[in-house]
Design goal:
mainly alpha; about 65% helix; globular; ARM-type_fold; DNA_alkylation
């Protein structure tokens, strides 16, 4: 990470803008409603990220120039570069932590988490210790979603489930994308370990909306049988006025 070679945000945007497509921008903007879109396809963004690494540009400097209102493609370009950078665990974590200030939508969060899967799987225990404090309600919602989606991607096994259930029971799920991430993760854990997840759902302290959304996500999955889906629906919570 020791480098003096820098590139400005404007220079990066100019590189990406050469490849922007108006029709692709219109299409992507409908999906990524919370992001400002240039209209550059993902393979091109990834190639640009690899070029940043090849030329040994200072990623920290580039992160510091950007903010959450920067183009999605510039932020995603950095996310790719961070995920692909050949760094020590500590240096990679430093970059990931600095990137948190650029998390402002589910698209950039989930994309970043997916990009980091190989790194997480190669450093599973150490990375879990890193994300543990990120579940705390005091953190910004999209940082918390980052932790939950990483858990969904890599930590749905029995070894981690009880810890995660405890986190979810205490979670402030008032933010929509935190609420949805929790429900999604519980559904994934059900598909990994049905019996343990059912026992949790019988006595959880989740809000009614998140509990029932988790059940809905389970029934939407192709993995459970029709019989299992019928049973899981019986675990739905009812509000007091029903």
């Amino acid at each position: 990470m020791n480098t003096n070679k820098t590139i400005s945000t404007k220079e990066l945007e100019q590189i990406l803008c050469v490849h922007k497509e108006e029709k692709y921008k219109e299409f992507t903007s409908k999906i990524c409603k919370d992001d400002i879109i240039l209209g550059v396809k993902v393979p091109t963004v990834k190639k640009t990220a690899l070029s940043l690494l090849k030329h040994n540009y200072d990623l920290i400097s580039l992160i510091n120039q950007l903010d959450e209102n920067s183009y999605f493609e510039t932020r995603y370009c950095l996310a790719v570069a961070i995920s692909k950078a050949d760094l020590s665990f500590e240096d990679k974590i430093k970059l990931i932590r600095q990137f948190f200030k650029l998390l402002n939508s589910w698209t950039i969060v989930d994309g970043f988490c997916t990009l980091l899967k190989p790194f997480i799987k190669n450093n599973k225990k150490e990375f879990f210790e890193f994300i543990k404090p990120l579940f705390d309600n005091e953190n910004p919602p999209f940082v918390r979603r980052f932790a939950i989606v990483c858990a969904n991607n890599c930590y749905c096994s029995f070894e981690y489930m009880n810890y995660l259930f405890g986190v979810f029971d205490k979670a402030d799920d008032s933010h929509y994308y935190v609420h949805m991430a929790i429900a999604w993760c519980i559904a994934s854990m059900y598909c990994t370990d049905k019996d343990t997840t059912i026992e949790y759902l019988k006595k959880d302290n989740l809000s009614i909306k998140t509990h029932n959304k988790a059940i809905a996500k389970i029934t939407e999955s192709r993995i459970p049988s029709a019989e299992d889906k019928s049973f899981i629906k019986t675990l739905k919570k009812r509000s007091l006025n029903q």
